[in-house]
């Protein structure tokens, strides 16, 4: 797997929490796709993903999408304002979980992102999230 | 025979491996509410510039606190799944401080539980986050 890179080729640094979750980045069609292997640290009920870990992964996917898009702007900061997670299917231990953030709008002050998480089949998401951010430009 | 909070905590019911490894601990409970604590941990930082922890661990704690609130109000454990959970981030938690999560079940139907809660880092009147969500029972 290649090291995380932003649009302009800089290394994309994920926050410590993303590392704690065990996330890595796969670049798919020049967009960051987060991959989170199953493990004890993301398990709720035996053999099942904990909802908070899924929400955390979606949050990281949202931040990664915005960091990628904002890479050319230098000092922009990204602060979450509201996050609404919808749980569609049970996350299980057989597969890693993947997630991407799709930027619906990136404005001067705010950004609206939809993030999707899935396991085997992207068309069968296990969870989605609407993430609204405050963008602070340097 | 109600829902036995102490026994549930002793059995490791608070979020399995995820809750344990986040260090989430039981604090208090009442008839329809439960309070948990998430200690500060530098490994959970979401914004390296400020040292503020990521929202994921707070979501995990609030999911657990509100889940337990449902079982307390129902008076029994009944498996359920989260339908949705909205979190409003009112302000960043202060680095180094433990975050307290208080979840409440304010309405229970046969199959759906409506929950809300706040997370704060010392003063419940100055919360860091507000949550609202729903669970659906597996037996329904």
Automatic annotation (TrEMBL), chain B:
Thioesterase domain ranges (all copies): 51-125
Single GO molecular function: acyl-CoA hydrolase activity
Pfam families xrefs: 4HBT
Keyword list, A-Z: Hydrolase
Gene3D superfamilies assigned to the protein according to its UniProt record, in alphabetical order: Hotdog Thioesterase
ATP-binding in keyword set: no
InterPro entries attached to this UniProt entry: HotDog_dom_sf, PAAI_dom, Thioestr_dom
Claim: Hydrolase is one of the keywords in the record: yes
NCBIfam families assigned: unchar_dom_1 (TIGR00369)
Protein name per Swiss-Prot or TrEMBL: PaaI family thioesterase
Organism: Sphingomonas zeae
